Amino acid sequence: MTDEKWEKLIFMVEEKFGILKREKKEIEEEGGGEVESVEFNGPLGKMKIERILHPRIIDKKVHYSRRIGSESKVDYIYSDTEKVQRLKVYKWSLDQNDWEEITNSTNDFVR
Fold first, then answer.
1. What is the DSSP letter of 7?
2. Distance between CA atoms of 9 and 42, rounded to whole angstroms?
3. CA atoms within 13 A on the CB side of 23
4. d(CA 91, CA 89)
5. 39 close to 19: Cβ distance less than 8 angstroms
6. CB neighbours (10 Å) of residue 51?
7. Dihedrals φ, ψ of 65, to 5°?
8. Can you give the C-alpha Rg of the chain in angstroms?
9. 74, 61 in Cβ contact below 8 A?
10. Do 101 and 80 meet the contact criterion of CB atoms below 8 Å apart?
11. CA quadruple 10, 24, 20, 102: dihedral sign
12. Which DSSP category does 105 fall into?
């Protein structure tokens, strides 16, 4: 998803449902990145869409030893120029009092 498509999606959500909350957070793990999310009242109740942007993993190095009790370690090498984007959609679950991810396998969209 490009930045233009993301902004177009946000604009469509704002037009149809209105935005309750919009926030952007930095990922402080190795490799870095950012998470941008928008909450709104949609057709399934309170919903949230989230875009996760982080550098592409271009290589993975595994450090290990065949000795008993030794540990293994994985080092990732990230691209300086290429980015990977993921889009996740959540709905608010009253039973769990938390966000529940909507995946392609659920039939929540068919009602």
1. H
2. 13
3. 6
4. 7
5. yes
6. 20
7. -135, 150
8. 19
9. yes
10. no
11. positive
12. T
Burial code (b: 16+ CB inside 10 Å, e: under 16) for 63-83 equals eeeeeeeeeeeeeeebeeeee
Q: How far apart are CA 29 and CA 90, in angstroms?
A: 23
Task: Supply the pTM of this predicted model.
Answer: 0.71
**pLDDT tens digits for range 3-46:** 899 899 999 999 999 999 999 998 887 778 899 999 999 888 89
Q: DSSP state, 5? A: H
Report whether 39 contacts 92 (CB < 8 A). Answer: no
Sign of CA dihedral 11, 14, 17, 22: positive
40-80, pLDDT tens digit by residue?
998 888 999 999 988 898 999 888 887 887 888 888 888 88
